Amino acid sequence: MRKKEKVNEILRLLDEYYPTQDKCYLDYQTDWQLMIATILSAQCTDDRVNMVTPGLFRKYASLEDFAGASLSELERDIHSTGFYRHKAKNIIGACQMLLIEYGGKMPHDIDELTRLPGVGRKTANVIRSHVFNLPSIVVDTHVKRISNKLGLTANQDPEKIEYDLMKLLPQEHWIRYNTQIIAHGRKICKARRPDCGACFLAEECESNEKG
Questions:
Q1: Is 157 a catalytic residue?
Q2: Is 122 a catalytic residue?
Q3: Can you spell out the DSSP letters for 151-194?
Q4: pTM for the complete prediction?
Q5: Catalytic residue chosen out of the listed positions 46, 77, 87, 122
Q6: Which of 4, 18, 86, 203 is the most exposed place for a label (fewest CB within 10 A)?
């Protein structure tokens, strides 16, 4: 019972301190743009991705443009996001697969999404959440780190963390849990210097309890 009460209190406080509406921290206009932006966000900040994508989406204005892009040129275009060779190859491959196998339409099934090059469960769940509004838990670095601190999971593997959180959190909170935890990780529970004194989740945080 204590675990359930703890989870309810954490969610209540997150709703109190952060907006309850779902928010995506990546800028996009189409489903395929969100897919590409999320691929770019791997090992890169959302702010950096949002600096790169306006020019990128002007240059490559359609799914077909990305599918037919020059690999070396796309690598240069996304160089500042890091791991650009791997990302460029996956972006082109994912766009080609979307056109050839799905007629240019983004699938919503997670097994179908994760068939696309460069699309793991995190990217798939971002798409499911923000494009299709399907209950999904996105495990990024903030969710992984803070969920462990709160004692909601003891796992380090993102997929295992996802399943742990699916068991604990009510479905109606799955999507916004990610956006609220991102906000908390940016404002208070920063990776290098968490401000435990200002944290409204301090009483529920096992890391804080351990000093």
A1: no
A2: yes
A3: TS----SHHHHHHHHHHHS-GGGHHHHHHHHHHHHHHTS-SSS-
A4: 0.92
A5: 122
A6: 4
